[in-house]
Write a structure and sequence with these properties.
By secondary structure, the protein is α/β, with parallel strands linked by helices. The protein has seven helices and 13 strands. The chain folds into two domains: 66 residues, Beta Barrel (Ribosomal Protein L25, Chain P); 163 residues, Alpha/beta knot.
Length: 245
C-alpha cells in the first residue's frame, strides 16, 4: 500500500488535507489514485493512519481517516550521528541511508578538514533539502518516525552537547581504537552519539578534544572507509545489534 508523509497540522480529527503540488502530481498523475482508493499517511509525530481518498480537486486531496495504526516497538538504542559534510551531493545519500536504517537524529558537521564552504543562506537551503530527502526515504522504507535533521554545526558545538549521551564514539584511524561490538557489549547503552570524520580523518586536536568530552575511539576495520560508507556501516551494525547475554 502506498505511503505518504503529511505534516501533523494538516490532520484534523477524521480528515487529512494534502495540498503540496509535488505530492498532488504524484498521487493524481503518476499513481492515478481515485476516490475510495486506500493508502497510508504518516506524520511528524510518528503517527500512522489508514485512509481512503474522499475528494480530489486541482488544489488538494481530502482523505478520510479509517483508523490509526498501532505503533510497533522501536529499537531500544537511540542513535545520533554527527557526520562531517562530504563534497558534492554525498550528504544527500548519507541522509537517505541513515533514515532507512532508523537513525534518530542526524547532525551535519563541520570539522577542520571539511572542504565544503557554505554561506548562511546555503546552509538553510541544504538543511531544507536534507529534510525532503529524509521524508522520501521514510516513505520508501516504511519508517514511521522521521529523523531530526539539525542545522549545520561545528564539531565544537557537537562536543558541547555530548553530556546527555550515555555512549559517545569517535571512529578514527588511531591504533588504540576498539571494535564497535566490544564497546556495545561492555556498555549496553540506550542513547548513542557517533562522530563521523571527513576525508583525511579528524585532526589529532579534534580527537583529543573528543576524548576529553568522553568519546571512546573506535575502529571500523583495516580498510579506510569513505565518509558515506562509515556512516552507513555504523548505523547498520547498531540497527541489527543484539547483545550476547
Amino acid at each position: 500500500m502506498h505511503r505518504f508523509y503529511i505534516p501533523s497540522p494538516n490532520i484534523n480529527q477524521d480528515k487529512i488535507c494534502l495540498s503540496a503540488k509535488k505530492q498532488l502530481h504524484h498521487i493524481k498523475d503518476v499513481l492515478r489514485l481515485k476516490v475510495n482508493n486506500k493508502l497510508i499517511i504518516f506524520d511528524d509525530k510518528a503517527r500512522e493512519f489508514k485512509v481512503i481518498v474522499e475528494q480530489l480537486s486541482k488544489e488538494n486531496i481530502i482523505f478520510k481517516i479509517q483508523g490509526q495504526l498501532m505503533k510497533k516497538s522501536l529499537n531500544k538504542m537511540s542513535l545520533t550521528i554527527a557526520c562531517a559534510i562530504p563534497k558534492k551531493s554525498k550528504m544527500d545519500e548519507i541522509v537517505d541511508k541513515l533514515t532507512q536504517l532508523g537513525v534518530e537524529r542526524i547532525i551535519p558537521m563541520l570539522t577542520k578538514r571539511v572542504v565544503v564552504k557554505l554561506s548562511a543562506d546555503k546552509k538553510l537551503l541544504k538543511q531544507a533539502r536534507w529534510k525532503k530527502v529524509a521524508i522520501a526515504a521514510a516513505q520508501q522504507s516504511q519508517r514511521k518516525k522521521l529523523p531530526s535533521i539539525d542545522e549545520i554545526k561545528h564539531i565544537k558545538e557537537v562536543l558541547s552537547e555530548a553530556k546527555k549521551f550515555d555512549l559517545k564514539l569517535i571512529p578514527n584511524l588511531t591504533e588504540k581504537s576498539r571494535t564497535l561490538r566490544e564497546t556495545l557489549d561492555q556498555t549496553r547503552p540506550e542513547n548513542i552519539l557517533v562522530l563521523i570524520g571527513p576525508e583525511g580523518d579528524f585532526t589529532s586536536e579534534e580527537i583529543r578534544l573528543a576524548e576529553q568530552a568522553g568519546f571512546l575511539p573506535l575502529t571500523l576495520g583495516e580498510q579506510v572507509l569513505r565518509v558515506e560508507t562509515a556512516a552507513v556501516a555504523i548505523a547498520g551494525f547498531i540497527n541489527l545489534y543484539e547483545p550476547i547475554d
